[in-house]
Amino acid sequence: MLNQIISKYNKSRNIQEKKKITPLLDLIKKNGYSSNNIYASIGEDAAAIKISQNSDTLILLTTDAILPQFIINSPYAAGLSAVYVGIDDIIAAGGKPIACSTTVSYNNEEMGKHIFQGIMEGTNKFQIPLIRGHTVSDSNDISLTSSTIGISSIKSFLSIKNLRENEFIALVWDIEGVPALSNNNYWNTITMKSSEQFYSKRNFIASGIKKKYITTCKDISNGGILGTLYQMLSYSSLGAVLDLNLLNTRLKKDNFPYELIDFLFLYLTSGFIVCGKKETKENLIKLVQNSNMNFYDIGITTKKLDLVIKFENNKKLLSTISPLSR
C-alpha cells in the first residue's frame, strides 16, 4: 500500500505543480518589492494587508485559477468553483469574505453563458458580491481566475507560520457529499447545501482561533490531503508523520465510499488540515462536532524536514520537505 501511495504522489500533476512553485516563491521573497503595510503574504492561504500602521484591521486577499480542462468540461461548475475557492482560503486564515472579482477568457458564447451562470450562483450561495472583473469573449485561450477579498483583525488572523513541532495534525471535513458528476476525484459538499449550512459548518474555525485551540489551518486544495499537507509543512519549515492506520480506521467506520489510497488524493470541498497543541485537541473536537463536521486525528508535526507515512506496521518517507525561505 505505501509503495502505491508514494507512486501516485510522485505522479500527481497537482502535487508536483505545488512543489515546483517553492523556488518561485523564494525568488519573489528575495527580489520583490516589500512594504511595511504587508502583514503576511507568501505562503499564507490569504495575504494580509494593514489598513494603517496603527490599525488592528487587516484586509485579506487570495487569488486562484481554475484548470482549463475543468472549464471546458463543466463551465457552470467552473464558474461556481471560481467563487467558492477563495471563500475557504479567507475563512481558513481567520477572516470573513466580503467581495470577489473574476477574469474570464473564452471563445464560445454558450460556454461564456454557463461560466457566468455559475459565477452568479456562487455569489448568491456564498453571499458575496462580484465587484470587479475582466472578460475576453474571443480569446484563443480558455481561462478563469478569481480574487477574493476578506477582512480580519490581527488577533484573529491565522498564519501558517504559527505551526510548531509536536502538534497534532487533523483532517476536519464534511462527509455529507457526493462525487461530482464531471470528476470522481472531486467530493462535492457544496451544491446541495444552503448558505446557512455552508457557513455554519465552518464556525469551528473562528471559535477555535478565539479559544486558541487552532495553531494553523489550510483548506484542502486540488492536491488532496497529501499535497495540502506538503504545502503547509513547506511554508512552516517543519516535517510530519502521518498515521494512515488512524485515517483508514475512521474511513471504514464511517462507511465512506472511497478506499484509503483514493481518499488521500480527493479534492475535498469543505475540508481543512487543522493543527494545534495536543492539550487543546479534545476541546477542538467538540467545536468541530457542533459544526456538524468530522474530525480525523491523522498525525503529528516534527522538526525533521520529512513527510513520513505509516500504514499497518510499515513506515516510509513520502517526501523531503523543501522549506520556503523566511
Secondary structure layout plus pairing:
Blueprint (H helix, E strand, L loop, with lengths): L1 H10 L1 H19 L6 E3 L6 E4 L6 E9 L2 H6 L1 H18 L3 E10 L3 H17 L4 E7 L6 E11 L14 E6 L4 E3 L2 E6 L6 H6 L2 H8 L5 E4 L4 H13 L2 E5 H10 L6 H4 L3 E2 L2 E6 L4 H10 L3 E9 L3 E6 L2 E7 L6
Parallel strand pairs: 4-5, 9-12, 11-15
Antiparallel strand pairs: 1-2, 2-3, 3-6, 4-6, 7-13, 7-14, 8-9, 10-13, 11-14, 15-16
Describe the structure in your own words.
Helices cover 37% and strands 30% of the residues. By secondary structure, it is an alpha+beta fold. The chain has 2 domains: 2-16 and 159-320, Phosphoribosyl-aminoimidazole Synthetase, Chain A, domain 2 (Alpha-Beta Complex); 45-153, 60s Ribosomal Protein L30, Chain: A (2-Layer Sandwich), CATH 3.30.1330. Helix 2 (13-31) runs parallel beside helix 8, helix 4 (75-92) packs parallel to helix 5 and helix 7 runs antiparallel to helix 11 (281-290).
